[in-house]
Design brief:
4-stranded mixed β-sheet, single chain, alpha+beta
Length: about 500
């Protein structure tokens, strides 16, 4: 007897439901362990620290940080812990295990020693000896000479950008030390990623090259004046109004930045991490004769007689234009930026005052000083409802606290006129009043020990420099040169 089709469908449906019910009643696999239990089953560093490493450094944390990697107990796991293995005091023991040559070369590099900047300032205030590194700057708690005062200025106010110090506490500046300064990414003083970068990005460069210094101008940035009424931006693209300490005007960026090039496309490891590197110049790439004789950058290639530069920044290949205008043959004793700089840093008369007085009212409108440490003390101690912070600053090399604050101010801060002068070879160059400095000191007894002592330099402290504000020469480059030559001639009559 054949069953009607609807009865067959009913039987199939009931069997299916029964089968599904049996599946539900079958024992299931064990529930996932709670997070706490899962962590307890792990040992060593990964039990507490979650991180991702690049393939070249994908090994146990203890290789760089020491400690014990098979323990669940914090104290034992942290045995002989090296908290900052990238610090200069540690890198021979840590980074030097695999990168011995690079570490030894770095210790002598200009970026590491800062000896050029240190000796430039010290000689302007009377030093006759040359120091080999910033760490050799003498400590003088009570300066007796203007040079000793300058040394205190360098150690406590100026040298906030060097590998022994983790930078100011502003979001875009606070960083690592030593090798970590350039090869790891930080923001707000916290490690963003534990993946090491072979080539630093521009954000790493700007951790030091900010605040009206070469590098900041590459992005078209110029600091506002420090007074309150000049510093209020209406909008910002950043998480903070002052990621670099002071608001900035957004001027025209360098043409290379607009095209997508980053700092290390031109300034490579040989220049930055050794004492043998020669700084790259504009003509090294844009003068075809020089380029053919010496390829200055490894990323430059030649295909069908077209020279190009591969940029780490945007991953693109950029054709290199060569100098063709007849002006390049006419003005052979003129530096490139005399014609091609779109604007330049021109901070006139930098005044630096060390005050040991715990009085702050005169600086109520100048609390933003380009120094987080000074700013924090001023804003706190001007508030009479809170406890005062000690009137002292940190030695950025030793980490010690010493009495007194270093305040900074300028007579004028402008950018639109590009100052021109002659370098030691007689060539016209863009100039900057780098050494237009005046130092003062008021001690704790309100006695003026030094009052506006000027740096001992010629030409108001003007020094040749290369503004990274490159663009087309435009219509008025001849007038810029002619105006300087007329002024120079008039001064000799």
């Amino acid at each position: 007897m054949r069953l009607p089709s609807f009865i067959l469908l009913l039987i199939v449906s009931l069997v299916s439901c029964s089968s599904e019910q049996e599946k539900k009643e079958e024992p299931t696999t064990a529930e996932p362990l709670p997070v706490e239990t899962a962590v307890q089953q792990k040992k060593g560093c990964i039990a507490c620290h979650s991180m991702s490493l690049d393939p070249a450094h994908s090994f146990e944390c203890t290789v760089c940080h020491n400690g014990v990697n098979d323990s669940r107990e914090k104290d034992r796991a942290h045995t002989d812990l090296i908290k900052r293995p990238g610090h200069p005091d540690k890198i021979r023991l840590t980074c030097g295990k695999c990168h011995q040559q690079q570490v030894e070369e770095t210790f002598h590099s200009l970026h590491f020693t800062l000896k050029n900047e240190v000796n430039l300032v010290r000689s302007a205030f009377g030093a006759t000896d040359k120091l080999s590194s910033l760490t050799d700057i003498p400590i003088n708690e009570s300066p007796a000479t203007i040079l000793e005062l300058a040394d205190d200025l360098l150690r406590r106010r100026c040298l906030r950008c060097h590998p022994y110090f983790s930078g100011d506490r502003y979001p875009a500046i606070a960083r690592g030390t030593g090798c970590a300064t350039c090869h790891l990414e930080f923001y707000e003083g916290k490690l963003v990623s534990h993946s090491f970068m072979k080539s630093p990005g521009d954000s790493q460069c700007l951790q030091c090259h900010y605040g009206n210094w070469v590098g900041f101008d590459y992005y078209g940035r110029y600091e506002h004046d420090m007074n309150d009424e000049y510093r209020t931006p209406y909008t910002t693209r950043y998480d903070y109004f002052r990621p670099f300490g002071i608001e900035f005007h957004q001027l025209l960026p360098d043409i290379h930045q607009q095209k997508g090039l980053v700092c290390v496309d031109c300034h490579g490891a040989k220049e930055l991490m050794t004492d043998q590197g020669v700084a790259i110049t504009c003509s090294d790439c844009h003068d075809k004769t020089k380029l053919l004789n010496r390829l200055p950058i490894e990323a430059i290639s030649n295909k069908k007689n077209i020279y190009s530069l591969y940029s780490i920044g945007d991953g693109k290949t950029h054709p290199i234009p060569f100098m063709k205008d007849p002006a390049h043959q006419l003005y052979t004793d003129v530096g490139c930026q005399v014609c091609h700089a779109q604007w330049a840093f021109d901070d006139q008369e930098t005044n630096l005052l060390r005050s040991d007085l715990e009085e702050y009212d005169d600086f109520s409108r100048l609390t933003v000083q380009g120094s987080f440490e000074v700013e924090k003390i001023l804003k706190n101690n001007l508030n009479y409802e809170v406890d005062e912070i000690p009137h002292s600053m940190t030695d950025k090399i030793s980490g010690e606290q010493r009495p007194g604050l270093w305040y900074k101010g300028f007579v004028t801060r402008r950018w639109e006129d590009v100052p021109i002068g002659r370098d030691s070879f007689g060539r016209l160059q863009v100039m900057r009043p780098v050494l237009d400095l005046r130092l003062s000191w008021i001690d704790e007894d309100d006695a003026v020990q030094f009052d506006g002592v000027e740096a001992n330099t010629d030409n108001k402290g003007m020094r040749p420099y290369t503004p990274h504000t490159t663009g087309k020469a435009g219509l008025f480059y001849k007038e810029r040169i002619d105006q300087f030559l007329r002024t120079e001639k008039a001064s000799t009559l």
